[in-house]
Write a structure and sequence with these properties.
Number of domains of chain B: 3
Oligomer: heterodimer
Helix content of chain A: 25-40%
Strand order of the largest sheet of chain B: 3-2-1-4-5-6
Number of helices of chain A: 8
CATH class of the largest domain in chain B: Mainly Alpha
Mean pLDDT of chain B: 88
Shape of chain B: globular
CATH superfamily of chain A: von Willebrand factor, type A domain
Strand order of the largest sheet of chain A: 3-2-1-4-5-6
CATH topology of chain A: Rossmann fold
Largest sheet of chain B: 6 strands, mixed
Structural class of chain B: alpha+beta
Number of strands of chain B: 17
CATH architecture of chain A: 3-Layer(aba) Sandwich
Number of strands of chain A: 6
Chain lengths: 228, 445
Amino acid sequence: MDMNGFFEDLDFGDFSAPSSGSSRKVPICLVLDCSGSMRYADGTKRPKIDELNVNIDAFLEYVRNDPKASKICDLCIITMGDSVRVVSRYTTVDRIHFGHFAASGGTPLGTAMKTAVDLLTERRQYYRDNDIEHYKPILMVMTDGDPTDDISYISRQVSDMVANKEIKIFPVGIGVNFNHGTLAQFSPLLKPKLIRNSEAFDKLFKLLSASSSNPNDDSLEKWFNNDF
Amino acid sequence: MSKKNYYYLDASVLLEEDFYQTVQEYCRTVPDLAFVLDGGIYHEIESYRSLGRVEEALTLENFINLFAALGIALQVDTAGGFDPSALAPLAQENLFVVTQQQKLVDNFGELGESVTFLHVVQGRPVPFPRGISENGAAFCPDRDIYVNPFDGEKVDYVYSPRYGYLKLDKSKAFSGGEGVCYRTYNGLFCKLYFKKHITYVNYKKLQAMVDMGCSMPYISWPLDILYYRNQFVGYVMEELSDTRSVDDLRDDNFSGFRILDRFVIVRNFLKIIEYLHGRDILVGDMKLDNILVKPNGDVYLIDAGSFQVGDYACNVCHAEYTERIYTGDDLKHILRSVREEYFPINKIIFEILMMKGPFYSKDNTEIDGTGSRDFTYPMEFPAEGAAALPYHYKMWFALSPAMRQYFYRYFTEGKVTYVSEWLRELDLYIMAKQKAAAKRAQAEQ
């Protein structure tokens, strides 16, 4: 077929614009611990679950109001407690609505992380099917205790994904009694960051906000490396 | 037996004033002479005619007729100066490539040492100047002895010798890699550097830029240096209003602009680059956020303080838009080359036109991922037709064949098409589309 003749006379008349949701995305998945132990303060001014709620609200508010983040941030939220709950599948923040998290139950970290990986795989396929470019997916996992289910398989899988540069993981340990080794199994490159007071909570979510609006901003990574 | 002398002459050199005298002299003085013309010259003639530049078209035609009459010319095809293989047999003899284009020196270099590159200065052929593709050393003293860095973010007013005291509107800060910008209350815009960028080198660079001035109105050029209590803190420029960054527009699929407007935006952007490169200035930190567009398609380049000017380096970079990775130390010590700047130029204009990155494919959806920087846009039109193509492929095939060639050669072979050539092709293309649109409008009436 004569491709040049084909398009020359079109004067672009037959071009329909790409759909508005097809611009670049920054996929961010939050895996949040809402187990019973989050009811206690543990170094923070208020109970850890309250710190989490306050900061998640502030983060969502930032993303909603930032003209860039509101367009490009593709957010997924998973909680673990009595069960693993997908609060929001990957979507833009204007479509995310939920009440405050309550703390109860155990810490099914293995199941929650598997859900995160499954949802990311599904989302990648969606990007492929809809011709959407995206920056490297960010997975932030926050927990205050030991897992109550098996993490051996999923931690290896996630660790491999990080090593293969398929995702960036930001492991966060909350409180003074946190077991460092658990989260380290998921993260071969970055050491888990321990958050032991309200200021650190605030800082973490502010830096995550910066990443949501500017994927090239590496301040979150630098903070994890204490290179700040 | 003595070797034959082949002189490859391209259109750029034939259009030099009084070049026919050089041709006459070659005919008189060079033994076993043959001129070599590129088949692409007919396309050049056609282009000049379409652009209404009849004088150039006639000059080229006259040369063709002259060489035909002399009977000592042969024709080769180099695919628009990208592929020198047709010249390889001639390089076994004495081959002289006479051109005004850096592109030919870059692309024909692979023919080997035996080829001599000449260009014309004041009607005379002289050896082509040293390649502009090499890196040089930046001006970078070991210690910044004259400047004591302090926190520029905390000041409320600044002083400019030219504009006097300027009160900063701190209600909105525009943060960048090197500092923060604030509006003033009289139509100016102040950039205050972060502590680590309040350096002697930056001070000297800005001073040079202020002295140099800029006649291109589409660059947010430093107008004066800013001080706070006699301490250098940044520079002042004119405020731009009613603009959106290309980064923002890309996330919005350039809504409000027609497809042809995007070609106009690219052309306007390249005109700025042509102006800067012509003055030995590189943008350095070229990225979508630093290119602003007005609703009428006018393009402005901001963050001029970070440009590479003379031997003052550009201290910032953006991994997504650089060909190689620079460490902080490299950025201070190494001057970037014009050639390197063609990576962001190609990537940015590609993104404006296709609204997808050049390395995007179904198998590589991640921007700047570890996935490769492989260029997978096809040169062959797919057999299944246009209807099924995604938007970015439709755009790709809506480019002119020459534009596709420019991108393809750059992203697959690293062969650069310089701004002047891009601009001419864009002018032709835009004009053709405008004519087609006018014709259609007339037919509809």
